[in-house]
Amino acid sequence: MVQTTKEACVRTAEQYLEGLRDAREVYYRGERVDDVVAHPELGIAARHGSLDFAFAEENPELAIAEGHSTYYHVPRSAADLRRRSALIEQATAFAATLVVLVKEIGTDALFALDRVTSGTDTHGRVEAYFESCRDGDLALAVAQTDVKGDRSKGPSAQADPDLYVRVVERRPDGVVVRGAKVHTSCTPNVDELIVIPTRALAEGEEDWAIAFAVPVATPGVKLYCSDYLHADADPWTRPVSSKHKMIETLTVFDDVFVPAERVFLDGDTRRAGQLALTFVEYHRFTAVSYKLPLVDALVGLALALAEANGIQRASHVRDKLVALVGYAETVRGLIHLAADRCRIDEATGIAYPDPMTTNIAKWTFARDYHAAVEKVIDIAGGLLVTGPAGDDWRSDEIRPVLEKYLAGAVPAAERLALMNLASDLLAREYAGYQSVLAVHAEGSLEAEKLMIARSYDPAPAVAYARKLAGL
Amino acid sequence: MVQTTKEACVRTAEQYLEGLRDAREVYYRGERVDDVVAHPELGIAARHGSLDFAFAEENPELAIAEGHSTYYHVPRSAADLRRRSALIEQATAFAATLVVLVKEIGTDALFALDRVTSGTDTHGRVEAYFESCRDGDLALAVAQTDVKGDRSKGPSAQADPDLYVRVVERRPDGVVVRGAKVHTSCTPNVDELIVIPTRALAEGEEDWAIAFAVPVATPGVKLYCSDYLHADADPWTRPVSSKHKMIETLTVFDDVFVPAERVFLDGDTRRAGQLALTFVEYHRFTAVSYKLPLVDALVGLALALAEANGIQRASHVRDKLVALVGYAETVRGLIHLAADRCRIDEATGIAYPDPMTTNIAKWTFARDYHAAVEKVIDIAGGLLVTGPAGDDWRSDEIRPVLEKYLAGAVPAAERLALMNLASDLLAREYAGYQSVLAVHAEGSLEAEKLMIARSYDPAPAVAYARKLAGL
Amino acid sequence: MVQTTKEACVRTAEQYLEGLRDAREVYYRGERVDDVVAHPELGIAARHGSLDFAFAEENPELAIAEGHSTYYHVPRSAADLRRRSALIEQATAFAATLVVLVKEIGTDALFALDRVTSGTDTHGRVEAYFESCRDGDLALAVAQTDVKGDRSKGPSAQADPDLYVRVVERRPDGVVVRGAKVHTSCTPNVDELIVIPTRALAEGEEDWAIAFAVPVATPGVKLYCSDYLHADADPWTRPVSSKHKMIETLTVFDDVFVPAERVFLDGDTRRAGQLALTFVEYHRFTAVSYKLPLVDALVGLALALAEANGIQRASHVRDKLVALVGYAETVRGLIHLAADRCRIDEATGIAYPDPMTTNIAKWTFARDYHAAVEKVIDIAGGLLVTGPAGDDWRSDEIRPVLEKYLAGAVPAAERLALMNLASDLLAREYAGYQSVLAVHAEGSLEAEKLMIARSYDPAPAVAYARKLAGL
Amino acid sequence: MVQTTKEACVRTAEQYLEGLRDAREVYYRGERVDDVVAHPELGIAARHGSLDFAFAEENPELAIAEGHSTYYHVPRSAADLRRRSALIEQATAFAATLVVLVKEIGTDALFALDRVTSGTDTHGRVEAYFESCRDGDLALAVAQTDVKGDRSKGPSAQADPDLYVRVVERRPDGVVVRGAKVHTSCTPNVDELIVIPTRALAEGEEDWAIAFAVPVATPGVKLYCSDYLHADADPWTRPVSSKHKMIETLTVFDDVFVPAERVFLDGDTRRAGQLALTFVEYHRFTAVSYKLPLVDALVGLALALAEANGIQRASHVRDKLVALVGYAETVRGLIHLAADRCRIDEATGIAYPDPMTTNIAKWTFARDYHAAVEKVIDIAGGLLVTGPAGDDWRSDEIRPVLEKYLAGAVPAAERLALMNLASDLLAREYAGYQSVLAVHAEGSLEAEKLMIARSYDPAPAVAYARKLAGL
Predict the structure, then answer these.
(1) Alpha-carbon Rg of chain D, whole angstroms?
(2) What does each C-alpha distance from D69 to B37, B371, D7 come to in angstroms?
(3) With contacts defined as CB-CB under 8 Å, which chain A residues touch B330?
(4) What is the rounded CA–CA span in Å between residue B182 and residue B177?
């Protein structure tokens, strides 16, 4: 029987927003922010974050499992992974192509921590922490990418040892950490911050082999928000980005004390690398799942704009439409398959998506994203960047001119609504945001290629070639 | 319990070969061929054809189902389609990357005939014919592609009405057909020839709306073989193509009488188009299944050659290897998914692979095949086309020179064996054969794009885009 | 001897700006603009327009020819075209990658008008107009692209005949025109507006076969500006777009009277199509010339960012750098060649760049632009969209944090300056502007392909193939 | 005044062929060859080689300069390089798309030797040798690529030191060399063999830093021919490759004595690398020049086949045709530009094509060749590999059947002639030969990318980017 949000341990959107009002140290555009919910721009991000909760209220059969948010449901089968993927996809569609990410990434990290610490002393801490997050239906951010300094050097070879987050003091009751992470998404509007290593570490780099979690409002945790998505919030020209926003932070740990029960890994360089990779195994699966509404929107926009412009029967347009469909459905197909081909971690019984298939899906998405965008731009036309302002459209004097002259094969109101959506998704800041994320988020194209190489078993193909060669 | 070939209605390779010795009218390189099995070149094709039978003897658990060849097993579920795909893939691997195709394509056509004639008068004929083929474990060819003449015109607009196969006389006991089909594979070494239309037909084109089957040895059926794969049969330089061959024919119907019980469609132009497409639905699934050993061989060769040349750690080589793996596994993944997403024909209960996924798989294979070949060529090196002859290698005087100077990071014997395999698969006639087939066999890239467009449901994506646009 | 701007008929930047203060009817963000120079945003565009004049002051040897602006120098040789290309390239580099375009496009149109009207009654009008523009060193915009309505239909088949600009009344002393053009660049900050047809016209479409020029401040000419580039003008995060702007307008002709001496073409449908194409011949050459600073900036940025991030020795980075160099230098090489291969119009002696080479250059630029951008994004990193705000950098409290943590292989100040430039060029509004322009400006990819087909002489290649085939 | 071959120091085709009859030690398919001209297969290659001489007889204005073969004309200007390029292009067109290469590559090496030895003791030897070759109008091969063994190791680190050609003894009157080169083109049918190093060498590798020349018939020089192009010589199905052939050898130096006056470099490791690169500078220019007839043939074939099949108006066909034209003309344009941008070697006054432009031209050719081939295959159709044999066409019984059924929009004789040409160029052994050469000949794609990186001056682009960034 489907549980409603009332019966389950899940919070409402309002409860979530209320929980964000605390002493967290957040900076935006040069100023300390008092209240992230009330803030005109960070508030948009906070309300976007609340959509995970609102979605659950409207879709309990998908979003609630065994009395908790389905995000917290530990996957043990292909069906669990399929459901998780469907939840992420549909919640992102609900959130207008922008992933909500206040539980998605955090649970990816928790599943990874659960598996990697299995059989170690800290496994109990992970489990206790997992339960407290799940039962409190908390919102989580994950800080993984260190600022890294000179990328040709490892943590210990940097001019400044703080360029990777590290332990600067070990006490009986916990550790003190210093350093900074970048690209931490949603930090200003979550409850908890999980911190994990960014890469494999060498012997002698024990101080950088640290994983832990702290409430965002912990003293010494300082969030410097990017204002990249700061822009004119006209909902007519920016139908998506005026209402949906995700904030990334430079997340500084200014000698932050972490109590022992929240330290999940300390000094184990081998497990540090394992944790980084295990997290990524889940997180790329999450990533492809949440890219699906965006690629669907590209396909749908291309179809709708072709019709609005009266060019849907032009042969080059049909060719581009097929390429877009092929792209979108290849990515979707591969991520479904990654779930269906899931593997079960022996030690814990936790399921994870097939790494090779997941990475091929992500690589396919990222490799062809820019070409897909270009095709939709081609179909849309130059009006994407030469169209009128919202104030023009709302002007009684100007609007009739636009209605007369910017009509296509459909009325101007319809054509311009589609054009504005396209401009938002394909040309403006939000487009650039998605474009850069396509290349870099959840690991770069190069990282995905590396993982494909690692997860592919070459033995059968080589044996077959050698047999054909008579060897 | 697995049945062995002895218990089941399946023939041995010898029985199959014996069955090919009849009055069939076959021409090769300007001459009438008396005995296709004894012929030095057609015999290679015949023995290649026999591998479907030999494979069944060795792999009854996969190749025999309910007392018959699994090829004849009518698919009714995803599992059936997966098994069929696995059989085709493994039998092709057994046959050294060249599909055997003496039952694969024929059963594709039979399933299509079964579905399309369902509810019509001729359905019983199809079923009777199917059972006789299955029970006799017959080998089948399918002639679909008409010679077409001027491709900008349909059958009825051609200067010569015979450029599409057509009925020239209707008698009470059957029909007389005239015309020719091209690209008919394996015709000289099968028992039966199934003939189906190549395209949708218009009203007034009833005479071209004809589907039927005849034994190959029927009077008036004349097979003009292509000698494209005629070449030096040195097994050292051509480890695959010297032993494996498929023969295509120009298949002429010189006023051939077809008895009524073997006429499956006559005059129904609507069903003619339906039959063409339904056949293709199965046949592209078959096609991608049998391409997998070839793409695996490319990957395996690239890996083995990189090592043989001592370049496996070069960064550009690793990059190419990943791209090859991504290609091979995307194609494999999509065809698995096409089976898993199978649909069930309502009228007959027969399963068919998801058309969109099948066509995306085929399109991906065909679109990227040449780039994949180029990558393996890049890794292999120029020796592909400047290497020694088999007679050089077998010469006591010359071989030591080759052993000294053509060694790589492995001995010359091993490196040259791999190089020769690569030359066979990537550069020589067989390579060209595969290269052209990649573009044209089972429908061109353009045909696949058309089917992707047709089988994709645009409504959800358009609705989503419109919702995002506020429409 | 090189003439200085003082001796020649050229205006200063100030004179140009002063000339923009008249009764022109300009709308921006819903409001009528009184003074386009004083306006906070349109003023940026006006000052950007003034760079053509400022550049001439600093570079008279290139920018002044025979006593006038070199833009007005009618090309009669390859050397003239090379000089024009160099002027456009260097002026655009001076203007920080954004073409100035207040003389470039206008003279493209004037050369085309000169050639196409040669031998007709209106040729003298064109010449007189040309001289007045040249001698007054006027700034010019060109309105070509009609709003077009339903693109599957021609002008006469539209629901509203005004969707292509047309003559609604012919008087002895001139004509009255109605309709609208889109994508008109720089209109608010030029002196004169030249209007030409957008496409070939059929018989019966004489009213749409109209070319003319009017001062921007002509009654009935209404300019509705796009506010696409309206954005936060922080010069730290947007080093280029905060200071450089081009404004496109929807240019409405609300029953505008054009005196006879300014009507260059009226009713000649054949010449209308010719004029559209001849203009484009020049304008694509202009376009590729002004794209060079942008592609150079991509290459330079990629190199500088690779070093700033410490990844310049990573093999995938080197591979991307070479691809960028190959792209930039192919485009540059082809446009040089288009000038060197120039042709001379027989009737007028005016030179024009080789159409095939020009279109291949433009097609190459446009086809590969998005892939080039993607490569630079790949090298830059995610900080492109997660970096700090200008107010952060200017904050005494926050800047030290950024200096400590966002340093790379170079200090943070340097790395962030490069990152901000990259964000401006590759991700933000200006990036989207360039991205859409790459596909659509000066004709779409499809239009360029069409022109390649038209300007290529197939006879030699076909004759050669036939000879090889023994035909 | 144009000199005819009679007045100039040039030989006739017959004289050239006569000169090949000597004691040279040539092996083909396991047998020693007595007379390379009389040999049924090597004779084809010899007669192909004679086309350079026959071409000169027919085209003295292009092929003869100042009394000698134009190939021997030392380039001192852009015009000289353009003429050299035109000669190579037209001679290759004359030779049916297969470069003749009996003077092209040899003079590339001579120009390089001239420049690199300038100022050294051996420069006089080079000049004397050059003059003797020129005055005798000799045919030359160049052996550069060592067999290399394990490519991850340099010459001195190989298990067998002979895997790079080296000096094994130094005598007062000359040196003794041992080792082997691969991919040496035309060796069996030239007079002289020039040997140069394949790569930069390190200190301690002096013995491998050797360049010299010997007559092919020198004792100890053993040529092991590749039989890759050995095939059915039916001129109907193979209109090009049945008559044109180039033979590559494994060229073994079995303790060959080289007299001092023919030793051009010995022990100078720095100049060894310089020589390898300088040769390549010329040879890639030669290479692109001789690829032009092949790419023209692809374009011409595509156009002719589209018409023969009746598909020239299909939109996807037009799209492919434009892509082919764009490809062919970009390659041609860039190599013209490489000549126009030539540089002059300061020490010798010898001109050389601009290295960056040459390498971009070669990279463009190689990078897109396979995609171009695929497009022509797409237009041609499956008949490429399923068509009839020459014996079928010559059979009185069968030919009428083929004429009836294989007609397209043109008669079968014409369509099949084009189809056979296409099969020869795109699918059969010769196609594979060209396909592998596209990737590997005259340096691989990776080598070209390396040279683009080296020859590009990054300073201006970086300075521009930094200036834009405010640095």
Answers:
(1) 23
(2) 57, 40, 12
(3) 330, 334, 360, 364
(4) 16
Distance from the Cα of A11 to chain C's closest Cα (Å) equals: 29
For residue B372, how many C-alpha atoms fall within 13 Å in the half-sphere facing its CB?
29
Instruction: Return all residues near D171 (Cβ < 8 A) that are at least 6 apart.
Output: D257
Helix axes B78-94, B51-58, angle to 10 degrees: 110
Shortest Cα distance, chain B CAs vs residue A175, angstroms? 41
**Predicted local confidence at residue D331, as pLDDT:** 98
Tell me what pLDDT residue B443 has: 87
Q: CB neighbours (10 Å) of residue B173?
A: 9
**pTM for this one?**
0.97
Does any CB of chain B come closer than 8 Å to the CB of residue C322? no
CA dihedral (A311, A312, A315, A320) positive or negative: positive
Contact status of A386 with chain D (Cβ, < 8 Å): no
Give the residue among A196, A195, A198 at the shortest CA–CA distance from A214. Answer: A195
Confirm if C348 and D321 have CB atoms less than 8 A apart: no
Helix (H) or strand (E) holding B426: helix B412-426
Closest-CA residue of chain A to D315: A315
CB atoms within 10 A of CB B73: 17
Residue A187's pLDDT is what? Answer: 98
pLDDT of B382 above 60: yes
Distance from CA of C315 to the nearest CA of B (A): 6
Chain C CB within 8 Å of residue A125 CB = no
Question: What mean pLDDT is predicted for residues D256-272?
Answer: 98
The whole-number pLDDT of residue B3 equals 54
pLDDT for C5 equals 57
CA distances to A219, A220, C237, C398, C403 from C395, rounded to whole Å, are 21, 19, 14, 5, 12
Across the interface, which of C388, C395, C409 has its CB nearest the CB of A150?
C409
Q: How far is A243 from chain B (nearest CA, A)?
A: 11
Percentage of chain C modeled with pLDDT above 90: 96
H/E/C letters for each residue in C80-148? Answer: HHHHHHHHHHHHHHHCCCCCCCCCHHHHHHHHHHHHHHCCCCCHHHHHHHHHHHHHHCCCEEEECCECC
The answer, for C454 touching chain B at a CB cutoff of 8 Å, is: no
The answer to whether D310 and B152 have CB atoms below 8 angstroms apart is: yes
- How does residue D1 score in pLDDT terms, banded at 50, 70 and 90? very low
d(CA C203, CA D306): 32
- Nearest residue of chain D to residue A319 (CA atoms): D316
Task: Identify all chain A residues contacting B417, using CB atoms and an 8 Å cutoff.
Answer: 469-471
What six digits make up the tokens of D372? 């171009």
> Which of D441, D453, D301, D457 lies closest to D362 in space, CA to CA?
D441
Interface of B with C in 282-321 (CB under 8 A): 315-316, 319
Residues 27-56 of D with CB under 8 A from B: 27-31
Give the amino acid at C329.
Answer: E
Q: Is C399 on the interface with A (CB under 8 A)?
A: no
Contact (CB, 8 A) for D237 and D194: no
The answer to whether residue B348 neighbours chain D at the CB level (below 8 Å) is no
Taking alpha carbons only, the member of C2, C238, C264, C233 closest to residue C114 is C264
DSSP A421: H
Taking all residues of chain B, what is their mean pLDDT, rounded to a whole number?
96
How many CB atoms lie under 10 A from the CB of residue C211? 28
| Average pLDDT value for residue range D458-464 | 98
Nearest CB among D152, D224, D386 relative to B401 is that of D224
Distance of alpha carbon C185 from alpha carbon A385, whole angstroms: 11
Tell me if residue C248 falls in helix, strand or coil. strand
Kindly report the nearest CA distance between residue C192 and chain A, in angstroms: 20
H-type helices in B341-354, by residue range? none
